[in-house]
Amino acid sequence: MRTILILLFVSVNFAFAQVPKNSELFLALQKHDSIFFERCFNQCDFAYMEKMIHKDLVFYHDRGGIQDKEKFLENTRKNLCSDNNKKPIRKVRKETLEVFPLYNDGVLYGVVQSGIHDFYIRVPNKEDRQTGTARFTHVYLLENKEWILKEVLSFDHQ
Fold first, then answer.
1. Hey, is 80 helix, strand or coil?
2. CB 19 within 8 A of CB 101
3. Is 56 in contact with 149 (CB distance < 8 Å)?
4. Is residue 55 within a helix (H) or strand (E), and if so which, with residue range?
């Protein structure tokens, strides 16, 4: 009986483990992360951001509190996108990125993505200067074949 419980535990954990870093799902989410943050955070493309963030977004920030989509967009405009002469930039540490699939009756409906990202200040005609680092956990839902950001944990800012 003990052997059966151990095998069951191992198989359940294996079934819901991080996907391999060379898998189609991991590579798709890695690419999505790169495009999403380049356009939203680094380029301040608000039309793209509106489209790619769920209407019921919940954003948990260890320094900024809980934000819904409206507050998140307002804070992004005010804090990240208001000064092109001193622009915050986000870069993920690729080696820390992890992707965990979410299934409903065997059908992929979302992922949990986590990792560490670094923040920089970009000043025209100068090298980006690192200003901090933080951990993140994102929940993306697969809607109409697009990954839509639904929940965010942004924490351990240093």
1. helix
2. yes
3. no
4. strand 53-61
32 contacts: CB under 8 Å, gap ≥ 6: 140, 147
Instruction: Tell me which amino acid residue 94 is.
Output: K
H or E stretch covering 110: strand 107-122
- By residue count, the chain amounts to 158
Reading the block at residue 64, the tokens are 């900024």
Closest CA to 98 of 140, 56, 61, 53: 140
pLDDT in tens, 115-157: 999 999 999 999 999 999 999 999 999 999 999 999 999 999 9
Closest by CA position to 115, among listed 90, 79, 87, 148 = 90
Instruction: Report pLDDT digits (tens) over 96-115.
Output: 999 999 999 999 999 999 99
Closest CA to 91 of 30, 155, 38: 38
Q: Is 94 helix (H, G, I), strand (E, B) or coil?
A: helix
Residue carrying the six token digits 């001193």: 86
